[in-house]
């Protein structure tokens, strides 16, 4: 079953479509990287997924039911971009609040996790560091024992060590529970070792959706003489290219296998960051399991 599926999903604010024609699916148990530039529609998509917004077009299904369905809410946890905690509550009071609000609450998980992180239960949330606040907010989301955990920019404003710690904590929770996680970020390098499913949003449209390993295996970076570049580009599906007078570099979608090339060309695999940036630079190109990106 898919943890999340959208069909022709659209959301507009007044006359502007923040999200348009968005069709994607995320199988259960995946850790999903949702990436895209500022204003791409990431927060809008996440809010639609957790039922905080209603679609203007199309459908969103979460864990087999329409997003926001009453029966699904206890199975979904959402951590908003600003990591909302009550500043004047102590950590212990935040946990009590979580316990009252959530029928599947796991107090033992919450206290063990916070003890391992050395976060004092008697400290007021407003007096914690940014990294500690992120960890408390994540702990509350995890103690809900969700089947789908949705995190909007969980690493924003954290230093590199805190980013690493948050991701490590998240990964051990995923390993224990098998839940599906969807997290948005601007920083692709933070997601490399963690995520196994990629969704790229750009200008309110889905540009890439799929298994990261398969996507990486299906793209190559070719370098060769500029005068032959048109011939090579005509045979292959070029995502992005960069040419000087003498040399051309093409990032191509091969599907699978390596393209046959003139010996003056070299080719190599691509990193996740190279692939994502190539698509973001070329919003008209797409890597989708279903029809290519519709033009505006
Ligand atoms: N409440 C709102 N009213 C009007 N327009 C909005 C509202 N929320 C978002 N938008 C617009 O919708 C588009 C998508 O915004 P959204 O916040 O979903 O993008 P995002 O990818 O999360 O951006 P960021 O990475 O900057 O957080 C943007 O053009 C934004 O200006």
TrEMBL record:
InterPro entries: AAA+_ATPase, ABC_transporter-like_ATP-bd, ABC_Transporter_VariousFunc, P-loop_NTPase. PANTHER family: ABC TRANSPORTER ATP-BINDING PROTEIN ALBC-RELATED. Gene3D superfamilies: P-loop containing nucleotide triphosphate hydrolases. CDD domains: ABC_DR_subfamily_A (cd03230). SUPFAM superfamilies: P-loop containing nucleoside triphosphate hydrolases. Keywords: ATP-binding, Nucleotide-binding, Transport. Residues 4-228 form the ABC transporter domain. PROSITE patterns: ABC_TRANSPORTER_2. The lineage of its organism: Bacteria, Bacillati, Actinomycetota, Actinomycetes, Pseudonocardiales. This is ABC transporter ATP-binding protein. GO terms for molecular function: ATP binding. It holds the Pfam family ABC_tran.
